[in-house]
UniProtKB/TrEMBL annotation:
One Pfam family matching this protein: ThrE_2
Alphabetical GO biological process terms: succinate transport
Family: Belongs to the ThrE exporter (TC 2.A.79) family.
One GO term describing the cellular component: plasma membrane
Protein name as it appears in the record: Threonine/Serine exporter ThrE domain-containing protein
Native source species: Photobacterium rosenbergii
Segments forming domain Threonine/Serine exporter ThrE: 13-147
C-alpha cells in the first residue's frame, strides 16, 4: 500500500523538478507552447526516478528507467505536436543531472590536492565520480533509447 507520506514526498519532488526543466527550456529557446510539456516531462522523469529509488532501485538504474520514460513520452509528443523530440526531452532531463555527486567528487579532488592523498578521500573521489559518470551515461542512453528502438532502418532482432 502506498502511504500518504510517500505520495506527498513524490508530489513535492515532481513539483520542484518541473521548475528547472522549465528554466532550462527557456534557456534552450523552447517554444512557449511546449514549456508545459517540458515541465510535465521533468516532473514525470524525476518522479519516476524518486519512486524507483524509494522501492529499492539504485540511482543509476532508476535514472536509466526515468530517462527512457521521458524519451518515450517525448517521442509521443513529437508525433502529436509535430516537433523534434529534443524539444520536450532535453530540458526534462536536466533535473536528473548528478550535480551533487560531481560536486562531491571535485571537493574530494581539491582536498587531495590541498591535504595530500588519503585512502578515504580517494575512495570518496572515485565513488562520487563513478556515480556521476554512470548517471550521465544513463541519461544519455535513456534519451537515445527511443531513437534506437523506433527510428532504425533495420529491425532490432
Amino acid at each position: 500500500m502506498i502511504s500518504t507520506d510517500f505520495l506527498l514526498a513524490l508530489l513535492n519532488d515532481m513539483f520542484f523538478a518541473s521548475i528547472p526543466a522549465v528554466g532550462f527550456a527557456l534557456v534552450f529557446n523552447v517554444p512557449p507552447k511546449a514549456l508545459k510539456y517540458c515541465a510535465i516531462g521533468g516532473a514525470l522523469g524525476h518522479g519516476c526516478r524518486f519512486a524507483l529509488m524509494h522501492w529499492g532501485l539504485s540511482i543509476e538504474w532508476a535514472t536509466l528507467c526515468a530517462a527512457t520514460l521521458v524519451g518515450m513520452i517525448g517521442v509521443h509528443w513529437s508525433h502529436r505536436f509535430l516537433a523534434h523530440p529534443k524539444v520536450f526531452t532535453v530540458a526534462a532531463m536536466i533535473p536528473m543531472v548528478p550535480g551533487v555527486f560531481a560536486f562531491k567528487a571535485m571537493i574530494a579532488l581539491v582536498e587531495i590536492n590541498h591535504r595530500g592523498f588519503t585512502p578515504e578521500l580517494w575512495g570518496l573521489l572515485v565513488e562520487n565520480m563513478l556515480k556521476a559518470v554512470f548517471i550521465v551515461a544513463s541519461l544519455a542512453i535513456g534519451l537515445a533509447m527511443p531513437g534506437l528502438l523506433f527510428y532504425r532502418r533495420r529491425p532490432v532482432v
